[in-house]
Amino acid sequence: MKPAAFDYVAPGTVDEAVAALAGAGERASILAGGQSLILEMHYRRARPDLVVDINGVRGLDRLRVDGGALHVGALVRHEAFDAFDAFESPLVAPGPLGRLLSLVVVNIAHPPIRALGTMAGSLAWAHPAAEWCAVAVTLDADVELRGPGGTRTVGAGDYFHGPHRTARLPQEMITAVRLPLLDDVTGVAFAEHRRTHASFAQLAAVVTLTVLDGVITEARVGLANAADRPVRAHAAERSLVGSSPLDDDLFGRAGRIAAEHDADPVARPYADVEYQRQVVTVLVGRALRQAYADHGGARR
């Protein structure tokens, strides 16, 4: 099939883009990378009356450190994080946040997709399996939205409402995602399971782990595709904080807790609920061990 008829506009500023969205009501779509939108339009699962192409909007391709956070503009492509250890800001790379983003990005589709797709677009599409969505929730990222009423910020924990449903209003666009920088003593890890190399994540785990004087002082565990939206594994995190990482079963136990108390999978044709909970157990335990090893490497 081919897309249904639509109008097209290519604004040069954020204000022009917002005005176009406001004029089209709820039947407008934003085009940045287009890696999901174009396919949906091709199969006519998406039928926007207006496509607002923001690729010419000035300033949205900036990646900078500002106020203790990495500011990722709406047009920053996935591939910007492929070799993030070489990024020019010494505040980010080769620090923990840079390492984490580099670990995650190679799991996103394949190079042609990474050359065009954007982090902001991933959050706008809000697929439960999307890696960047899980990273945003795990790190308590902020999503910056601009609409006719001005700019507002929504925390990632409140932003996702379900598959392809978010706090973003039809007249708003994401202008940036802000990821907090991580302490130098924080270890990071990412573990993913997929059916084939090019498949969406069947399940994935994002972990940050801070250990001081032999005790875990902070743990963040996020899950992708383990529910109808990315989730923080709060129960698993609570089981870790205050414990010694030298406890032989600590990380395995946290994985089991995440699977039983934090994940909320639904049966799929290729994976029943029991299988998915087992995968969560393995991935969380594996990522925690990797984060602890990364923490040791960071300290050395």
TrEMBL record:
Gene3D superfamilies linked: 3.30.465.10, CO dehydrogenase flavoprotein, C-terminal domain (3.30.390.50), Uridine Diphospho-n-acetylenolpyruvylglucosamine Reductase, domain 2 (3.30.43.10)
Domain FAD-binding PCMH-type: 1-184
SUPFAM superfamilies in alphabetical order: CO dehydrogenase flavoprotein C-terminal domain-like, FAD-binding/transporter-associated domain-like
Keywords on record: FAD, Flavoprotein, Oxidoreductase
InterPro entries listed in its UniProt record: CO_DH_flav_C, CO_DH_flav_C_dom_sf, Diverse_Substr_Oxidored, FAD-bd_PCMH, FAD-bd_PCMH-like_sf, FAD-bd_PCMH_sub1, FAD-bd_PCMH_sub2, Mopterin_DH_FAD-bd
Domain of life: Bacteria
The protein, known as: Xanthine dehydrogenase family protein subunit M
Higher taxonomy: Bacteria, Bacillati, Actinomycetota, Actinomycetes, Streptosporangiales
